[in-house]
Structures are given as structure tokens and as C-alpha cells.
């Protein structure tokens, strides 16, 4: 078994080793391969990610990913967007859970406003929002498969009252849900973003387009204490990549205070994907035991350092 480890930039280099240790606890005999990609490499070499890096990720059974700095430079292209497209990681799953609620946000991952089809000019810049029937069908199928494991219902986040492309997305999701015996409820994304914060217990599986899913899952960080707690998985037919929702946070990089909970939970999702029974729950239980005692990094009011928190999580798993 091959696991690719990509720390990336900023705090990615601090939280990824913590997550890797958790994976190694369960998969000691796996082969771990490493790729240096991101802004730091681009500054040094002029290349943020190469074809060889992409091939390495494709050959792995799963990818443990840190965080990437993306800068507004015309010659710098988003690394994670390229990886998602090259590996066809069309489904992004972002779980958000807390007291009395357990939500899964399913985000289409390769189309929408992140299509990469853009024109930049002095007086006008444009980004093409691409929504296809095929892309909508397969993300709806993914959401329905998740719903079958849970409450057999999905909410479809959209803006079909304004965006004609969302009419296609909404109607396709409704049709796929009907074919799968799943109840569906379309909601306009702005109203949904407010209501999910006010009444999180009402929601189970939410499916939406690329940028809406990106924003909505970040908004839901409010429910759990911040972005440092939220994991995600990117799934394709042949490959999968797991990463914390947060970015590279250059303002705190190198200080050893980054919250590794999101990275640890992403490691749990990776292990679950690889079929390691119980690992995801054990990691979560160990994390919760620490947080319930007030043991956390500074963003959650504690004073423990990144690596020390990781060590305590591993110790809890071993107990």
C-alpha cells in the first residue's frame, strides 16, 4: 500500500506530520512517499507542481495533504485545483459535527466557478462558471450514496432563482435523488447558509456546487470552533485525497501553535477510505477526550502546542 504525503506550505508542514503519525499508527507497513508542491517550491524553482508529482499522486492508494498558499500572481496556478482535476477528484466531502448535529456537505469539485477557464484584462476579467449534466449527475449520485447510509434525504444548495446554470444542477439532483429513493429539498444557498447556523440539527446531507460548497463548509466552521477543526476528503473513481479545510495560515506558520484537529480528522477519513475498521472513531474519541478536558491549541482557548496535541491523541488511541 502506498500513501502519498504532501505537507505543502505554511502550517501544512506542522499539522501534516501529526496526521501522518496517526496514519502510521494503523498502517505501519505501508510505503510512504513524499511530494514537495506549493508556493514555497514555486518561489525556489518556478514550478509549484510537476507532471512527475501528479503521476506520483495517481500511483498512491491515498493522499494525505496539508495546505497550499495560493497567491494572486499571473504565473502561479492553484496547485490543489490542478490536482483535483488531474486525478478527477470530483466529490468533496466535508463533515461537520457537534452536540446534536452531524452534517455532511457534499461539494462538486471540478466544475463551477473553479473551472479554471478565465480571461484577465485591464478593464474586465471573466471566469466561466461551468455546470454540466454529467458533473451534476455524478455528484448527486455520490450525495445519494452518503444519504443511503444516513437519513435518506438530501438538501440541494443552489441559486437557481438567479443563475440558469443552477437550474440544471438543481433539477439534475432532484431527478437523481428520485431514482435513488432519496428525499430531496432544494434551498437557495444564501438562506441555507443562515439556517444551517441557526438550526444545524435540521440538516444531514447537503449537496451543492463548487464555490457554494467551499463557502458553506467554511461558514459551518462557526459551529465547531473554527476552520482548525474541519476535515475533508476528495474522492474520484481511482484516487482519493484527504486534507484539512483550513489554508496555510502564513501568519502563524512556524510558531507551533496551529490546530492539528482538522488534519487528524482528515487522517481518520483516509484510514476509513482504506478500510481500517474503527480507526476513524478511535481518533475522534481521542480528540474529543482532550477537548472535553480543555486541552487544545490557542485558537480554541488552550495553550498546548501542535506536536504535543498530536502525541496526546496517539497516546489516547493506544490506551
From TrEMBL:
The keyword Oxidoreductase applies. Pfam families: Iso_dh. Residues 2-313 form the Isopropylmalate dehydrogenase-like domain. GO terms for molecular function: 3-isopropylmalate dehydrogenase activity; isocitrate dehydrogenase (NAD+) activity. Keywords: Oxidoreductase. Gene3D superfamilies: Isopropylmalate Dehydrogenase. One of its GO terms (biological process) is isocitrate metabolic process. Its EC number is 1.1.1.85. It is an enzyme of class 1 (oxidoreductase). Belongs to the isocitrate and isopropylmalate dehydrogenases family. This is 3-isopropylmalate dehydrogenase.
Amino acid at each position: 500500500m502506498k500513501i502519498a504525503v504532501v505537507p505543502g506550505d505554511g502550517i501544512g508542514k506542522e499539522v501534516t506530520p501529526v496526521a501522518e503519525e496517526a496514519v502510521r499508527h494503523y498502517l505501519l507497513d505501508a510505503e510512504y512517499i513524499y511530494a514537495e508542491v506549493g508556493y514555497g517550491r514555486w518561489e525556489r524553482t518556478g514550478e509549484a507542481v510537476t507532471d512527475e508529482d501528479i503521476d506520483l499522486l495517481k500511483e498512491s492508494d491515498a493522499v494525505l495533504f496539508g495546505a497550499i498558499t495560493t497567491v494572486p500572481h499571473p504565473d502561479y496556478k492553484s496547485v490543489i485545483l490542478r490536482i483535483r482535476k488531474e486525478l478527477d477528484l470530483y466529490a468533496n466531502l466535508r463533515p461537520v459535527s457537534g452536540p446534536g448535529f452531524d452534517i455532511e456537505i457534499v461539494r462538486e469539485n471540478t466544475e463551477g466557478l473553479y473551472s479554471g477557464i478565465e480571461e484577465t484584462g485591464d478593464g474586465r476579467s471573466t471566469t466561466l462558471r461551468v455546470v454540466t449534466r454529467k458533473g451534476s449527475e455524478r455528484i448527486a449520485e455520490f450525495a445519494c450514496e452518503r444519504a443511503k447510509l444516513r437519513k435518506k434525504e438530501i438538501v440541494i444548495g443552489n441559486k437557481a432563482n438567479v443563475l440558469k446554470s443552477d437550474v440544471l444542477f438543481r433539477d439534475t439532483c432532484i431527478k437523481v435523488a428520485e431514482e435513488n429513493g432519496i428525499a430531496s429539498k432544494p434551498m437557495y444557498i444564501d438562506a441555507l447558509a443562515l439556517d444551517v447556523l441557526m438550526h444545524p440539527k435540521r440538516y444531514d446531507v447537503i449537496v451543492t456546487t463548487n464555490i457554494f460548497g467551499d463557502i458553506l463548509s467554511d461558514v459551518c466552521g462557526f459551529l465547531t470552533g473554527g476552520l482548525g477543526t474541519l476535515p475533508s476528503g476528495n474522492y474520484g473513481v481511482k484516487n482519493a485525497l484527504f486534507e484539512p479545510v483550513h489554508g496555510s495560515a502564513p501568519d502563524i506558520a512556524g510558531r507551533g501553535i496551529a490546530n492539528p484537529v482538522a488534519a487528524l480528522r482528515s487522517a481518520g477519513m483516509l484510514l476509513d477510505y482504506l478500510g481500517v475498521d474503527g480507526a476513524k472513531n478511535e481518533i475522534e474519541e481521542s480528540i474529543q477526550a482532550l477537548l472535553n478536558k480543555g486541552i487544545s491549541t490557542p485558537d480554541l482557548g488552550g495553550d498546548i502546542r501542535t506536536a504535543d496535541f498530536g502525541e496526546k491523541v496517539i497516546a489516547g488511541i493506544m490506551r
